[in-house]
Amino acid sequence: GESVGLHLPTLSVQEGDNSIINCAYSNSASDYFIWYKQESGKGPQFIIDIRSNMDKRQGQRVTVLLNKTVKHLSLQIAATQPGDSAVYFCAENLSTGNQFYFGTGTSLTVIP
Amino acid sequence: DVKVTQSSRYLVKRTGEKVFLECVQDMDHENMFWYRQDPGLGLRLIYFSYDVKMKEKGDIPEGYSVSREKKERFSLILESASTNQTSMYLCASSSLARALFFGSGTQLSVL
Q1: Which end of chain B, C or N, has fewer beta carbons within 10 A?
Q2: What's the pLDDT at B98?
Q3: A109 SS3 class
Q4: Chain B residues closer than 8 Å to A89 by CB
Q5: pLDDT tens profile B46-92
Q6: Angle B60-B62-B67 (CA atoms, 0-180°, nearest 5)?
Q7: Residue A1 reports pLDDT greater than 60
Q8: Which residue, among A34, A19, A25, has the nearest Cα to A6 in the 3D structure?
Q9: Residues in CB range of B88: below 8 A, 6 or more apart
Q10: Cα(B106)–Cα(B8) distance, rounded to whole angstroms?
């Protein structure tokens, strides 16, 4: 089956710095991607999505970049805050199916 | 805002008990999903449903069944709970536009 992987299992950043979380996907047919934030003991929270006809999408303090050539997805968080500390993971989906495939996550720790 | 509501945040059950986990979504989404999440294993799909009374097996359906009698409600049933079913259970729903939204999860402990 498809695999979605994250390059780094943990990431520590200083408060106020920018964070970059990476994700590699293996299926070039995937055409829809989502980033989630999951705090301890809670369900995943939808952050931002992007379709394969786009290279970049911006939200509030977050930007997702999609590089289809190397099958790479990244989430950039600007001015990282302590409340951003959580596990972040990506998900991919193919238009031909209902299933999503998830990475195992990167744990982001923001140092005050 | 999309809301996916799971009926319980924490459940403690005994081995052999029948367990019902309920999930309701308020956005008229066609698709609903049940996942379990375990440390180091990530999210694994148990079952999903793309319409009322329709269901499809996911990656790990053994020991589980589901019911979708109404569009907004998707139930996960553990016919005879076992200790290896101790896990965080997550319900999710998505529209045809595919954005997938999760509930807050049910942490199930089977003793």
Answers
A1: N
A2: 81
A3: strand
A4: 42
A5: 999 999 999 999 999 999 999 999 999 999 999 999 999 999 999 99
A6: 90
A7: no
A8: A25
A9: B36, B37, B38, B105, B106, B107, B108
A10: 6
